[in-house]
Each structure stands twice: as structure tokens, then as C-alpha cells.
Amino acid sequence: EHEDMASMLKPRGKFAHKGSFGRALLIAGSQGMAGASVLAARACLRSGVGLLTVHIPFCNNFIVQTAVPEAMTEIDINDVRFSCATDTDDYQAVGIGPGLGRAEDTEAALLDQIDSCQTPMIVDADALNLLGEHRSYIGRLPKSSILTPHPKELERLVGKCQNSYERLTKARELAKSAGVYIILKGAYSVIIAPSGKCWFNPTGNPGMATGGSGDVLAGMIASFAAQGMAPLDAAMCAVYLHGRAGDHAAERLGQHAMLPSDLLDDLGPLLHTIENTS
Questions:
Q1: What is the DSSP letter of 12?
Q2: What is the DSSP annotation of 97-112?
Q3: What's the whole-model pTM score?
Q4: What is the distance in angstroms between the CA of the first residue and the CA of the last residue of the chain?
Q5: Where are the beta strands (DSSP E) in 86-240?
Q6: What one-character DSSP code corresponds to residue 142?
Q7: For 164, which DSSP code?
Q8: Is residue 64 packed enough to be buried (19+ CB in 10 Å), middle (13-18) or exposed (0-12)?
Q9: What is the pLDDT of residues 144-200, one digit of tens each?
């Protein structure tokens, strides 16, 4: 509920600095998919991270640097896609997947990144689809990692499901066996802990069912995790606020017309309201 957010979003100290609020890395985007990088990056920054670096191919560098001037960029060795794992030791959270594509060298780079990363990962979009081809790697993800599948992406990880109950059951089994947190996206998105315990989210609306909404959520989770929130709190806070911002956008624009980027316009005032109640 709304009141729960105030206990998760801690007030900022007067003598805090950008290093006080974590460093996040987003590995996102490929040729033709720079928008995924931009949406995730803007959401990450709007959610309060101290420093953000976006790992992108050279073809997207000028787009991201122009659209998100607050973010730093790290350029992959491949001009058009993610193809080489990068050092993550300096970050408190790593988001990977939005707009990544499914090329063979991207697949190999993802597996290398999982093996070399000690930082909690937020695994989204194409990173989930690639993991579906290498399910054994799910258990090799760093501790406190968070997976964010929609129903079809979940089925690539756990197999076909006949109904929503079977889907939830298999998602709980995966969370337990792999020791990860899972956000199963959809109406009443559910956050599943490694213990198997579930929390259902009451916010959100069908206007959010469009490409890019998940990129915004992935950026928000990475931001909260980098700021030091426990993984469950980061997941809960991001999912709730993501849906609440979507509800506000729908009130302003209607469900047919709203865009994922509109959520970012509502996120700031929403966070401000929570700040004033904490």
C-alpha cells in the first residue's frame, strides 16, 4: 500500500552526496533499440540513483548521451550490440536486458557476465529470453538478483503453463530452487521471494501494456537496489510506484494515449508526495 513506501524510501541526509546513493550499471540496447536504453536510464535516474553508467554499443552512444545527459556511457567493443562482459565491481546493482537482442555473441556475453558478476543483477527482457536457452545459469546468478518476466518470458524459463495458478506455482518453484526474486508482471503483478512467499501489487492499468513499460520498471528496480534497499523492498517499491505512476498517467491522458515515458513525468511528483509523508 501507499503507506508502505514511506518506510522504504528513507529521507536524504543534509550532508549526503552523489556517492551516498549508489552506482548502477545498465547493460541495454542494440542497433534500433536505443529507446530501451533511454527509458531504463531515465527511470533509473528519476528514481534517485547517485551515479548511472549505461553500457551500450557505439551506434547508440550519441542518442543516449543526448537524451539522458545525466548518465555516463560505456561503449561495447561491438558497434551494434552487447558482445563482451564488462567489469561490475564498482556498482551496487546491474540491470541487463532491455533492447539487448538475441545475437549469438550477445548470448555468450550474457553468460560470461553472469559468471563474472558478484553484484545483484536485475534480469529483464531479452536477457530473460536468452536465459531460457540456458536455464542452468539461473542458479548461477549473484545472490539477491531479481528476474522480471511477463508470462511468456516466464514460460521460456519454466515451460508451458495451462493457467495462471500453474504459472504462479512454477514461478514460486523457480524462485526457491534458484534463490532469486521474481517479479511476474501483469495485472496484479506478483513479487516472489526465494522463500516462496508472494506479494500482489494493486496498482497499474491496461494502458501500461505497451513496449517500453518494462524498461522503465527495470531502471527503477536497479536504482532502488543500487541505493541500498533490500531486494524485496526494491522490487516492491519499484512495482508499486511504477503502477501508481501509470495510474496517474492514465488519469491525465487516458489508457489509449499514454506512453511509457509518461510514467516518468508522474514519478517525480509521486516520490515527492511520499517524501513529505516519511
A1: P
A2: -TT----HHHHHHHHH
A3: 0.97
A4: 14
A5: 93-96, 121-123, 146-147, 181-184, 190-192, 198-200
A6: P
A7: H
A8: buried
A9: 999 999 999 999 999 999 999 999 999 999 999 999 999 999 999 999 999 999 999
